[in-house]
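S.,

As promised, the nicotinamide-adenine-dinucleotide run. Input:
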Amino acid sequence: MAVAASTQIEHYDLIIGGENVPAASGETFETVSPATNQPVGRMAKAGLEDVARAVAAARTAFDEGPWPRMTPLERSRIMHRIAAILRERLPDIARIETSNCGKIIVESRGDVTASANCFEYYAGLATQLWGEQIPMNGPLLDYTLREPVGVCAQIVPWNFPLLMAAWKLAPALAAGNTLILKPASATPITAVMLGEICREAGVPDGVVNILTGPGKEVGEALAGHPGVDKVAFTGETATGRRIMELAAGTIKKVSLELGGKSPNIVFPDANLDEAVDGSLFAIFTNAGQRCTARTRLFLHQDIHDQFLGEFVRKAGNIRVGDPLQHETQMGPVISPTQAHRILSYCQRAEDEGAELVAGGKRITEGDLGAGNFLAPTVFDGVRQDMHLAQEEVFGPVLAVIPFVTEDEVVQAANATIYGLAATLWTNDIKRAHTLARRLQAGNVSINYPTVNPPEAPFGGYKQSGIGRELSRHAMDLYTQTKNVVVNLNPQPFDWYGRWPEAPGT
Ligand code: NAD
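Predicted complex:
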């Protein structure tokens, strides 16, 4: 349980070795609501000593504890319990998630359900981890074992705090690993709650450790720690690069889910009403703070004006406001710094010649002035060489780019360092499947904005990442394959005594 609050706000400890503990230094930090910039929790601030304690706990739990040695069915039952508790406590968890990260309550409720789905999916896969039997000539029996990797450090961002943690924990636990989860400093509360739920569901002590603290110190120490076998990271591409460097020291296994600049391409033969609504969803949900946000809208010139007119009209009707209110359709962005950064991108886009056709400003009416609220923003006439067409803004800002030919749009869509996702709107079946192959993206959706259920693999091409989360593929990230060969008919081997004749004699 969270420690009793000494002021009005709740205090949350670290979770190490099954215990809620303060940081070794005794230090804490405040976490705030992006809607008010007022504190919603006080967190233990982990440091290097806590990293050492958490890694030692996870190491002991892996090397000596019951979790990797349990039957898969026992692990599966416990994981089903985690999902059941998430569902039972959905209203509370969703409210806290919204208070801490600012996403609207409807989306937070969806994230809790999606997190429970994720645990249920991997509870099923825990019992389906099969090796192979490999046919061999002669007396050899050869087979493979799928074994857990060991101690996993899992570092997650602030845009889907609970769901990103679930995507990490569920496959790692299913395979019998132990772990240390480090949430983003901006949104740490639901990660601690998830750690407590794991314990309550029966996950043994030391298997799930939660460290809240600064990425530069705690994240880096985990990524470089010799007691950690694997690092799984979701966040910015630049941070991912640093993690790879740190992990190289001990050749840790690394999986990375990084940034994106995903294209959304609309052809004249599409159902334009569906395309407008789907495109709004693809950019403005979670106030644009999605790695898979379709931030570049490629409009064929024949439908450009009609489509954009309707899109801008509907964007203007999105209800921006208090994310805890059910009616609200878009909440604040994560922090004043992020709001400033997003508006700087807008200013630069105007300076570079893009045309602002919606938003581009803070919303400060009434109570909203205290939070980080931005209007849904659209720039038309964006060129490939502009910053807005190349860099991840991570806010509710859309770049509209006109096109004429298929070749031209494929070339432009692929012309960034990223390759996370892409969407096509067309009713031409040949075009849809041909372009799905030509787009450099880990996830392509056709006539559908964006979806990431646990059954389908998720991850990036190019600098959007390494490895695939979700689906059966995620089990590859959290297992290693051991080959075992058995001689069923041992004969005297005598390699040195019966040396073969030289060739040609
Ligand atoms: P971030 O890279 O700043 O932080 C992510 C996590 O890494 C946080 O927990 C942070 O504390 C930690 N961290 C920061 N510096 C670190 C360091 N030097 N060493 C180790 N850990 C460090 O990202 P963010 O701002 O929290 O999240 C937004 C980014 O995440 C965007 O780029 C977005 O595209 C990406 N993202 C990607 C996916 C995906 O699945 N591909 C999903 C969600 C978000």
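The chain is about 35% helix and 20% strand. The mean pLDDT is 97.

- D.
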